[in-house]
Design brief:
Layout (H helix, E strand, L loop, with lengths): L12 E2 H8 L3 H10 L6 E2 L5 E3 L1 H16 L4 H10 L1 H27 L1
Antiparallel strand pairs: 1-3, 2-3
Protein name: MerR family transcriptional regulator
Keywords: DNA-binding
Pfam family, one: MerR_1
Length: 111
């Protein structure tokens, strides 16, 4: 059986890793943490924030609504509260399509 490399998923991401993922400053992540109650990173004894996969998924939802769709912060908050399951399903589909796009670009580049 051939060796298949598995993607390693971390349990916790530091603030630096999260800011690199989204290409924003740490202050913007902290601001969204205060504004949206769905982002609840754990804090270690030193007070450093540790983000889970759920926190990352919620940040993706917030960035999609605010940056891509142009919602205000209050509008995004209301939309998330009223359509929580729909929002998560939409983000899952968006993530799936982005992975497919990345794969297709890799295939095109290898030809």
């Amino acid at each position: 059986m051939p060796y298949k490399e598995r993607e390693i998923n971390k349990l916790y991401y530091t603030m630096g890793e999260v800011t690199a993922m989204f290409g924003v400053n740490a202050s913007q992540i902290r601001f969204y943490e205060r504004e949206f109650d769905i982002i609840q990173p754990k804090k270690n004894k030193k007070g450093n924030r540790l983000f889970t996969q759920d926190d990352i998924a919620n940040l993706k939802i917030i960035f999609n609504l605010v940056k891509d769709k142009g919602y205000t912060l209050q509008g995004a908050r209301d939309y998330i509260r009223s359509n929580k399951n729909e929002v998560k399903e939409n983000q899952r589909v968006i993530d799936s399509l982005e992975r497919l796009k990345k794969f297709l670009i890799e295939v095109r580049d290898s030809l």
